[in-house]
Design goal:
The protein has 183 residues and is α+β, with helices and mostly antiparallel strands. 33% of the residues lie in helices and 35% in strands. Strands 1-2-3-4 form a four-stranded antiparallel sheet. About 10% of the residues have low confidence.
Amino acid sequence: MTKSFCTLLFLSFWTISTAQDPAKVAEKSKEISNAEKFSERSGTLIQKEFADIGSIKKCKVQLATFTDLIGGQITKAVRFEYEYKSTYSSDTKLALLDSDEIEGMIKSIKIIQDRVFPTSTTGNYTEVTFKSRSGFESGCFTSKTGWLPYLKLEKYDGNSYVFLDKDDLSTLLGILEQAKAKL
């Protein structure tokens, strides 16, 4: 009886400790762009086309066009692709920025250039971040040398950072303006 009770108690604690929080599971499933949702629909024949727009710090920027060949619907997005290489492995990091989010990112870059970079850094660590619905981030943070801009392609992956120079934001802005014109 005691062994059965101890076993039951152990299994109860183990089940509770390894169970996933339904809110976190739902949150992760929500972190997908509208373009990804469109391209992953079942019962459709999807054509994916990626046209190069430019690159920044070895991060390729493309215009992604998803076409439902059965229904004739088309969705476009900006695709970021970065090849992460370490001593022991390499991995391709991807992010999609939906067409309705491009204008917000353009405005964010302009605000960072016009209002954030001119300010001197205080002694406190500070972050300024634009986030897309898929978890893609762009922004800047303070470092010992001043503001450091970055892109982060995947929300839960520390290896998906692309660190930029201040001047690179102008290049990125130009690339996004080109993408916006092609939508």
